[in-house]
Amino acid sequence: MKSIRFGKLGDGRSAGLYILESPDGMRAAVTDYGAALVSLAVPDRKGELRDVVLGHDDASGYETGSGHIGASVGRFANRIAGAGFELNGRTYELTANNGANCLHGGRDFFKNRLWEVKIDFTSVRSGDIMAAYASESIADKDPSRGMRGMHDNMITFCLDSPDGDQGFPGNMHIEVTYSLPGNGKLRIDYSAVCDADTPVSFTNHSYFNLNGHNSGTVTGHMARINAEYYTPVDAGLIPLAEPEPVADTPFDFREDKMLGRDINANNEQIAYGGGYDHNFVVGDSARESRERTIKEAGILYSEDSGICMTVLTDMPDMQVYTANGLKDEPGKEGAVYGRRAAVCLETQFRPNAINSIDPDIREGCILRKGETFTSSTIYRFSNI
Q1: What's this model's pTM, rounded to 2 decimal places?
Q2: Is there a catalytic annotation at residue 86?
Q3: What's the CATH fold of domain 222-370?
Q4: 136 is catalytic
């Protein structure tokens, strides 16, 4: 694995960039700042590599940038109504950073933290990576095993989130593993343990444009979402009590449909989101707590590049966000990202699940003390 410096943060600390390569030629670059996906190069129908995710050129861009581009999001992805919840008879107050609501954990985002890189059974900062590679003492432990968490095609980032962090209870240890296992797959695995009961929902906030990160809008992309229901929202984008059928609405993607076909429809829900910024039920929410299995959540396809991306996940829900809020965002290679320059497909628990009146939905997002939470999402690329 190649490790290079990714610039300095405002406080003088250095961030690292790590290049993963798959057996079939895909390349991904990830940074320990925000445990973010910086680039993802996949072959188009001509066999030429295209970088299909938005990003920044260095760590400072991620430090000052908006939109959570490429970031690992927690402790609770998406929105929590009223920036608070009750658990075990206690009320917890979070940071209101989206009107009266809490979005992506509040202002002290995981995207603005320097995560650790897991090597063997230890963790080191990015500035020590090359020294760790050169360390004879590490190599002598078991040369055949290499360093756990860092291989040519995988890396693990970890973060310790203390009790009260972002307002959530318990000391939590979180790990995010990126891997390129071959067969056109980018896999992201999450795990967490906590010493107190706490709500949890992690996601990756990459913005995808299958024509290339600097190629304009995605309204011409075709999409299919394997969801019979979506969750309507109020004006603050908090889900209403019950999901509703997608049939006969702009949210029906059960068959291939251009993203832009209904994106400006005369529809209250579309108006609330300024386009698509809604949760789709892609699994069996009543069983999401203990019996999650990998299934196909949706497909995104570009006729221009011939690139097709299939999203597979064991999470029960997926937020579809058409980058309605991006505006003049400085990006990689001199690009400037504007409105609808990409689409996010964020696998997750339902927004505001911790405050749901449905006990199955609420219980599904609670990590109990001493238990281990895991989830997996796979982005599988092919050509059509």
Answers
A1: 0.91
A2: no
A3: Beta-galactosidase; Chain A, domain 5 (2.70.98)
A4: no
